[in-house]
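Why should sequence recovery work at all? Because a backbone constrains its sequence more than one might expect. Tight turns favour small or flexible residues, buried strands favour hydrophobic ones, and helices have their own preferences. The token representation captures these environments compactly. In the example below, the structure is given first.
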């Protein structure tokens, strides 16, 4: 039985304050990932602090504008579902390798040209959609949740690389937030249940504030207002960089397709090929726009599928407001800096629940597949291969760079294996497309 949605895709919360509160939890789920990519790339390239800040501001502004377009739609661009756009870790490896040789200008120029792969690829999505029947889609949705869950576990333990990783205090705070989110969802009514994520995070933040665990240094140092400058770093177009980024965009098409399928399941919305093409086109056009605005490439975030699954708020108008909040965070860096002060264990408690909800959605979909030996083989092998890369990324350490780039994501590996097995094994399952 499908979960009852509190707000359908086209619904609008009757009160603006309610819509802002609901949109805030999407912001909290996405902001850390959006900021992390420019910080990682900037740190690897040893950029000065002011240039890293410029990258972060551009990423926030670009993410906000493209989120609005993805949710609202502009002509053929935008899937018109509750999607949050953000800088993607799928481009970090290629970006750093290009940046070390050609600087940030090389990353941005390569991204601009590489985004054409996604823009052109969008026109083939009605065909590609047919390679994602129910069994394949179920595997991809499950792998998205399984791949994100370790991220939440790392947050709950204090963050990757933390000296006190796994400290009892971190786990206790994460457990406190997790328990509150469960209570709000299960026993809360109306807006309390719908905003369970933001209420849980806010409660955890207050607890950490009382314990003296909040560091406001970044807030004090952040500028109050800043306008990201287009072409701030300039652009260069090295052939090697364009090839590397184009490969990353090809991989992202597979991952984003899976994310849209997961979002369709969470919002109880059919995703025909033409609608999928509009979403992929927005990812490509958005990444080209981001490059001009001096931001790393963008893609649709899977994290926010968990927010929809957990809260039952599937309104694209709510997430449009999230885009507005991201835009404001890009113009007022002090706001983004304030959100970044949220301790990782607080995010971990809420994230564990959100990402596990995606796993649960995938399991429900898997349970709906036809019980046959063929489907069991597809599910078992593709999940096994996807998890192999997810839990043991060093498995590919001795492989050529091209192989690591293409198969470095468990979601991509699982999706490709599932598609291949569905094509090769007798009794192929077809996905009949329908008009948008």
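From this structural description, the recovered sequence reads:
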């Amino acid at each position: 039985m499908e979960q009852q949605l509190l707000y359908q895709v086209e619904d609008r919360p009757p009160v603006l304050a309610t819509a802002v509160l609901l949109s805030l939890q999407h912001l909290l789920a996405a902001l850390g990932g959006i900021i992390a990519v420019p910080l990682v790339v900037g740190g690897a390239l040893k950029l000065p602090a002011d240039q890293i800040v410029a990258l972060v501001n551009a990423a926030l502004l670009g993410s906000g504008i493209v989120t609005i377009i993805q949710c609202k739609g502009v002509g053929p661009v935008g899937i018109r579902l509750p999607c949050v756009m953000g800088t993607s870790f799928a481009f970090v490896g290629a970006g750093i390798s290009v940046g070390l040789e050609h600087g940030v200008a090389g990353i941005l120029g390569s991204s601009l040209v590489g985004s054409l792969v996604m823009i052109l690829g969008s026109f083939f999505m009605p065909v590609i959609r047919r390679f994602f029947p129910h069994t394949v889609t179920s595997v991809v949705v499950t792998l998205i949740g399984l791949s994100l869950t370790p991220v939440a576990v790392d947050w709950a333990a204090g963050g990757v690389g933390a000296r006190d990783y796994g400290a009892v205090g971190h786990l206790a705070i994460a457990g406190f937030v997790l328990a509150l989110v469960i209570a709000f969802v299960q026993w809360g009514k109306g807006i309390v249940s719908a905003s369970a994520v933001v209420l849980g995070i806010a409660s955890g933040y207050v607890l950490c504030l009382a314990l003296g665990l909040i560091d406001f240094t970044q807030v004090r140092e952040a500028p109050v207002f800043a306008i990201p400058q287009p072409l701030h770093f300039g652009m260069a177009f090295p052939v090697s960089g364009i090839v590397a980024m184009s490969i990353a965009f090809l991989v992202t098409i597979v991952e984003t397709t899976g994310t849209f399928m997961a979002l369709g399941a969470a919002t109880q919305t059919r995703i025909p090929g033409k609608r999928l093409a509009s979403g992929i086109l927005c990812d490509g056009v958005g990444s080209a726009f981001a490059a001009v605005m001096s931001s790393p490439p963008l893609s649709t975030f899977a994290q926010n599928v968990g927010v929809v699954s957990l809260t039952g708020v599937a309104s694209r108008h709510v997430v449009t407001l999230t885009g507005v909040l991201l835009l404001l965070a890009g113009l007022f860096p002090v706001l983004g800096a304030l959100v970044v002060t949220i301790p990782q264990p607080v995010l971990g408690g809420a994230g564990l629940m959100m990402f596990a909800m995606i796993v649960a959605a995938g399991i429900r979909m898997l349970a709906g597949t036809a019980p046959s030996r063929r489907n069991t083989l597809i599910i078992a092998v593709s999940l096994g291969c996807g998890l192999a890369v997810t839990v043991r990324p060093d498995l590919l350490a001795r492989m050529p760079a091209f192989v690591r780039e293409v198969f470095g994501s468990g979601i991509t590996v699982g999706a490709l294996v599932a598609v291949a097995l569905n094509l090769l094994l007798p009794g192929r399952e077809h996905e009949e497309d329908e008009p948008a």
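A few observations help interpret the result. Strands lie at 85-87, 298-300.
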